[in-house]
Amino acid sequence: MKVKSILISQPLPGDKKTLYHTLAEKLNLKLDFRPFIELEPVPGRDLRKLKVNILDHTAIIFNSRHAVDNFFRVVEELKVDLPITMKYFCINEGISLYIQRYTILRKRKVFYGKGTEKEFLAEIKKHAIENYLFPCSDIRKNTIPDFLREHNIENKEAIFYKTITSDLSDLADVYYDVIVFFSPADIKSLFDNFPDFEQKDTRIAGFGATTDDAIRDAGLINNIPAPTPESASMVSALEKYIIKANKG
């Protein structure tokens, strides 16, 4: 079946033109953005009541841009003066560069994985003597906490923001040929909004291993997985699939 419309389960990136827009123009597709989840910040005062003291730690683990945003939000709310010795461990280089929004990198000690989660965890293991703070969401993978516990690395996990389901009721009678998901929370939101959802002719695109697992656990088919050896990005995977589907 041909693909004529795509729904991206993320917020519309303002006026910024994305690679998805370029793809839609190239292949003459209808493209919509709609976040399936919303993030609710946990106030710094609540974290203080839970005895989360940032300065008790020597290193911070960042596994997403949301974690970076909310960590530095709390730092500002609580007026924490971060020491120059604080180390930052980022799951990839992109996250490490993102920190520049909040601090000058050349004055900070930043470490990051070289593309895979395994390499990121190996970087943490090299610095096992640190006392880590892991600011995260209430919905997160077990990989990092399990790794820290398994290797007896001192750490504290703290929920700095919560993931809540968006109201998608206005999409009840709207059909898209492809829906693109980026996290297990997106799949949860789909069924929170539409408990009786059936895939039928809808093609599903899922980014990342945990999203792929959530799609399968929900009894759905991930028609367009990414990344793969052939398609490093979701845009690339979509383009290959759609060109093939729309041929002829």
Radius of gyration, taken over Cα atoms and rounded to an integer in Å: 20 Å
Order of helices and strands: EHEEHEHEHEHEHEEHEHEH
Largest sheet: 6 strands, mixed
Spans of at least 5 consecutive residues whose pLDDT stays below 50 are none
Oligomer class: single chain
Total helix count?
9
Decide which structural class fits the backbone.
Answer: alpha/beta
Determine the fraction of residues in helical runs and give it as a percent range.
Answer: 25-40%
Looking at the structure, what is the overall shape? Answer: elongated
Residue-averaged pLDDT: 93
Strand content: 15-25%
- Head-to-tail CA distance between termini: 11 Å
Remind me, CATH topology of the largest domain? Rossmann fold
CATH classification class of the largest domain: Alpha Beta
What's the total number of strands? 11
Could you describe the 3D structure shown?
The chain is α/β, with parallel strands linked by helices and 248 residues long. The protein has two domains: 5-36 and 168-245, 3-Layer(aba) Sandwich (Rossmann fold); 40-163, Rossmann fold (3-Layer(aba) Sandwich). Helices cover 33% and strands 22% of the residues. The chain contains nine helices and eleven strands. It has helices at residues 19-27, 44-49, 65-77, 93-98, 117-126, 143-150, 184-193, 209-217, 234-245, and strands spanning 5-8, 30-33, 37-41, 59-62, 87-90, 109-112, 132-137, 155-165, 178-181, 203-207, 224-226. The chain has a six-stranded mixed sheet with strand order 3-8-7-4-5-6. α3 links the parallel β4 (59-62) and β5. α1 packs parallel to α9 (234-245) and α7 (184-193) packs parallel to α8 (209-217).
